[in-house]
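Provenance

Sequences were taken from public entries as deposited. Structures were produced by running a predictor on each sequence independently, with no templates supplied. The record for NADH-quinone oxidoreductase subunit L from marine metagenome is shown for reference.
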Amino acid sequence: MALIPLLPLLAAALTCGLQNNGRRAASVAIAAMLGSCGLALAAFNEAWGMAVGAHKTFNFEWLTVGDTAIPLGFVLDPLNGAMLAMVTFIGLLIFIYSAGYMKDDERMARFFCYLSLFAAGMLGLVLANSLLLLFMCWEIVGVASYLLISFWFHKPEAAAAGKKAFIVTRIGDMGFLIGILLAFKTTGTLTLYNEAESGMLQQHLTGTVFGFSVAAVISLLLFMGAVGKSGQLPLHVWLPDAMEGPTPVSALIHAATMVAAGVFLVARTFPLFEVPLHEEGILKMTHVVAWVGAITALIAACIALGQYDIKRILAYSTVSQLGLMMVGLGVGGVAVGMFHLLTHAFFKALLFLGAGSIIHGCHEEQDIR
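Predicted structure for NADH-quinone oxidoreductase subunit L:
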């Protein structure tokens, strides 16, 4: 399992040293992604045969602080098996498309370095069996997105869009980090699953924080991170501006990687979202997720109707679709939300790559009027 994110990570390191040979850097990155895709399809085949609720884990001790051991690990189950196949397959197609799209760019090798780092971060996030490892990969995705969105930094709009994406997503990540610390204080572990059945998602959490159940508070803080990454209201403002990067970056962010991370986080930690806000109450965090998603879907779709830039139309369409995924998760349909995430990734990647071809053919014109 560890090889799946490791291959793009090695490709990022290798292409970093090939700054004067863009074609070779593209070949290295594509070969690494092809290898990851093959391994991911094998993992998906294994996960497909697992029973509902079954999982295969590989945990190891990362470091020890005093008497506290901090483990990291990977997990494979039906939830992330399909995600792995989707991310690597669509990522591979975008890598191949990028080889032609960026062929005249003098910084082509660096582009593939950032692209490989982006893919490695997302694959590590999907496989993570520890909230700490998930957060590390989450931040790698955030840094790589900043580098890619502002790749053409000689354009003031691109530089500003990169900074905006980085700062806005950090707002959500602050809540995510506080949620991780609260989860560790409550459960004594950051591992999601382990063989001793004492993982975070295998425990029955008790206790309250400010009158609310501790599980609900943890899930609210984790949802803040998901709101930032998946462009939900009110932290959606960075996503349309992310169109200032090269078109393959837009396709990767909006289809296979970054925006999918927030939806996947909610799906992965879904047992925490099902705990009532109060011991005797009926309201749950899933209701909050559903309402935020519904409002986002409606408002983003209305905004898209008034856009004339072909890529911004698709950007607001993505925000709206992500809202629908959150609605699916919020009404208790993890399979529904994830199914829409997977199907959306394919058609949205095709739309963005098709838009890139149209923009090239129209001499970089993006106005549809």
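The chain has one domain: 3-361.
Strands lie at 56-65, 68-76, 208-209, 212-213.
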